[in-house]
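Let's sit down with a protein and look at its sequence and fold side by side. Please make up or recall a protein chain and show it to me in full. Label the sequence line and the structure token line clearly, so we can match residues to local backbone shapes. Go ahead whenever you are ready, and we will take it from there.
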Amino acid sequence: MKEWNSSIYAFFDLTLAIEIIHGCHAHAFKCMAKVCKVQICQFLNKKDARSTGNMQKHVKSCWGDEVLQAYDDANNAEEVQTKIITSILHSRSITASFECKGKGKVTYLHRQHTCTKTKAELVCWVAESLRPFNIVKDRGFQCLMKTGRLEYYIPSPQTISHDVKLVFA
């Protein structure tokens, strides 16, 4: 652990798992995002055993570009943990996602939405298109959303209803 001085480790659980994968020992780091189940492995028998490139790629895809940029600007892991991650885990709300929506050309992401962004987009879609809250339980909707991404988070109708009231009430 003494050699793990990169602040990127702040995005991963401190409880370290040591696994044997195909006969090779590896450190497995679990992402700290609430619904993320990803583990990044660092194989100990490789010369790049301390490389954090895969961790940075995961943080970018899981937490977003703005968080990765804030990480780059931080001085150390403690600052990342206390200022960036703690504030995101505690204050990231559905209304914050609406505040950062801008006007202009519609663009599409090439990566999967975070859970918060998914809820925000679904709340917007349900409210603007006058859809029933239980549309998220529709077989066709589930099939479209989860094709190729079985772990994709889809909130419950109760969550959508609560968030619509929270945002538009």
Summary: Residues 93-102 have pLDDT under 50 and may be disordered. Strands lie at 17-21, 24-30, 39-43.
